[in-house]
Helix-turn-helix domain-containing protein (Spongiivirga citrea), 207 residues
Amino acid sequence: MKQIANKIAFLGKALADEILHAAIVKQIPKATEILRKDQYINVIPFVVEGLVKVISRFEERELLLYYIQPKESCIMSFSAGLYNQPSKIYAVTEEDSTLLLLPVEKVREWIKTYPKLNELFYQQYNERYVDLLTSIEQILISKMDKRLYDYLKEKAKVTANNELKITHNQIANELGTVREVISRVLKKLEVENKIKQSSQTIKVLSA
């Protein structure tokens, strides 16, 4: 608990103490779905350690919307929980993660009492809004080679690892396309010395 207390100390002692008293601490393995579309929100996840990706699914395809990193929460869960609406997204752990599950009714109280929590959610709302606009711009305007390279750089950044263990099919799902397109563009990026592929990994060579 002391380690978790240190991670949320930036929120201020009074709020941190209330969170530690009311929240549930969960250790969640990689690739675990923690939120589904149309699910009603009882708890809002706050990432202490690890990484969570937020995605939309359309039929059999996925589209990566944004990542939730340590000291961040899921702003779309916050919005749905606050207004008692069903979730519009899916959330999946990208790696083994430690989460604080914040009860919605407590969050409603805390945002009225603690300005720091309001500031945190408004800041993250703005950041996620920019992420979504960037995603839309890439889909509408950017060529697939730029979209794919930007995606790989962002994944390397949020995981702090330039060597990504990921399949062509996984990338295709997250970018809302098909595996054959991803394989072809990855070869192009490799020829341009931007990445290096092995049987199980893709290494980002330059940022």
User: Anything to note?
Assistant: The first strand starts at residue 24 and ends at 28. The chain has two domains: 2-139, 142-204. The helical segments are 2-7, 13-22, 75-82, 104-113, 115-140, 144-159, 168-174, 179-191. The domain at 2-139 is CATH 2.60.120.10 (Jelly Rolls).
